[in-house]
Here is the input.
Amino acid sequence: MDVSALAPFSNVECPHCAAHTRVKLQFGPYTLVRRYAVGGMSMVFLAHDETLDREVALKILSEEYSADERRIVAFEEEARITASFSNPNVVRVLRTGRAFGRFYIAMEFVPGGHFEHQIRERGKIPEAELLALAIEVSQGLKAAHAAGLIHRDVKPGNILLDSEGHARLVDFGLALVTHGGKAQATELWATPYYVPPESVEGHPEDFRSDIYALGATLYHSLCGKPPCGEESMATDLLRAAKKKIIPLSVVDPSISMETCRIVERAMAYDPSGRFSSYEELLASLTGSLNNLTSGRAQFTEISAKRRAKKKHWESLMAVGAVVAILSAAGFLWWVSSRKPKPSVEIHAPVVPDLVPNKAAKVSNIAQNYRDARSSMERKDFERAAVQFREIFNNSAVQEPTRTWTGLEAVLAHFLNGRSADAVIQGREILNHMRSGPGNVVENRAGLIRVLEQLDNFPPLSMPDMPQGGASQVVSAMLAGLKNWDQGMTGPAAICFQKAVAVKLPPQDTWALVYQKVAADYVGDYQLISGSLFTEIPADKAGCEAAVDQLNRVLIMLKTRGRAKFNVLAWQSDLKLRAKLLDVPKPLPPSLAQVLARIQIFSVDYQFKDAMVYLKSLPTNPSDTACSALFAVAELSEDFLLSIEQDLTKQGVSAEMKLKSGEIMAKISIDPQKVITVTSADGWPRICKWRDFTPDALIALHRVLMKNQKTELAWQIRRHECAIAFDWLAGNRERAFTAAATLSQSSETYKKRWSQISAGLPK
Here is the structure.
């Protein structure tokens, strides 16, 4: 195959065997591993440095700009600028180069992702956490300023988080060299939410422009929404939006007044009202963080006063709260005035050779303990757990009896298959042992170490303890049962073997029952770890024979939970494999059958399902037909996603015809992806994409593209998706006409469309 015209990391399908593979993975001394991000002028890949055996982030200039000398110079300048200084809070540039005619920048890979993702996932970032990150970003900007640079594109998407959660500033593609003074850009590329007013006005910029963008980023992070909702880059609209920003203290009164003042000063419309230096900004951020973490009461008081004044309805709610409190007080008085019924006396058991204190009834406690012990011997673990817990909850029982019965309740829960209850009981007994009452238990420190790790995932090993004694058996059982429940049967078996091997002194013979249970687990481990569970039969008969053997294993198991689950799960896998081996391979569908199926998917715009179907085909029915159909289905899905993204930002007015024949005048999409249309007479209704005619969606695409102020390459991509959608939706003549027109304005698109259209059925 000739892949010379394809982009790096392109997914291609072999026309003979239909296997998919990635091409142009070797990029200079780097191997592309996966696509990491896509920007306006470039793509970023996670790559492996073959020379130094390390992961790097490889930023590659897009094909559209690879022949544009102005963009190449800007790309090289970004690399030079970023490499001109070093700071722990700025991503380092490692090297630059060219491959396949593309310019690339190799940077250190920051694994924590960008901060924009954190805001999107969490909504708001806690104030103390954000202030710490703001200090780190400010230090990176300060280092850039000392090198005579301003970043000009500070935003959440250009702040990366490393594996330890520290901030790293990236993307100096729009940076200007100021040498400590001012500079004026020839283009305005920054994001509208964060761009400073002087950039909008076309005035010279300095380091205070970066301070404004940082303040806007902090504003967005703290309250969950950008400081202004204007997305247009039109000067008059942006200027007006920047002058009407609602103060952060009004938007979210829970934020401390000091932090609000920092953000509002950083975002002053006039640069002279902002911080006069990074030192001043860092001092304010550090002071606010220290005050916040020290828990000074004045901030709570100020926030409370501001919250009380925010809206009139809050006062009404306060009145309602008073009424509710008075009602509750009256109810409590009525309850307290009634004579309480005598409480039922709960008797708790005790280990026979230990004496309860004087407040307990010895005979009842001893009998309850014997009952719990009997339940454990009969393997009635559910009842034993309840009985041992009642013993532990009785403060009349002396130590160390009370602590031991609490530990036995944990074991009983595990043995009953109730690991969540075991962990809860484990926390209770852990707090009890830490607080002092249980400090007389033998090997207390070792038992505490085991209890502390009961709800952790890594395998739990036995702590070092003196040989012999009930504490060693109980510790081994706790560790073994925790590992067993989490599916780590090998480490669990080691713990059970240690429990069995303990030599108990006469006073600890009550722990013999747990040694017997441990022996059962060791036996079950041997049953579920043999070749029957590791060797996969090659034919149907072998699978059925293995299922029969597993039925016999089920009868032999002595423990509950994990062992039985493993056997049943393996049986299920073998039964499924037997069925698959028994079913003859289907004949590949004809091209006509494939087309008919794709048309069914296209009626309701189910393009994802169409792609899944095409991928599932055993062979390609007609050379490159499936590859071409897959490409137009993928582009059609992107077509709907692009419209959805545009309408989520802002609804539009446009005449749209539904398949029902109704004419709609407006359309919008909320953050939950619900599509709402409104008729000309103002009646709204909820729709799905399948409710619209293809012509309506193409017309909507044209309306949206009129308002786009994006790069030409991105606009071509949008039109390419619309053409593919039109072809799949049935208007093939119009699609080919539009493709011919678009090919005249883009040689790159012409090549792509010629490859796709060659495989499309005529």
User: Anything to note?
Assistant: Residues 296-360 have pLDDT under 50 and may be disordered. Residues 115-308 form a domain with the Transferase(Phosphotransferase); domain 1 fold (CATH 1.10.510.10). The chain has 28 helices and 16 strands.
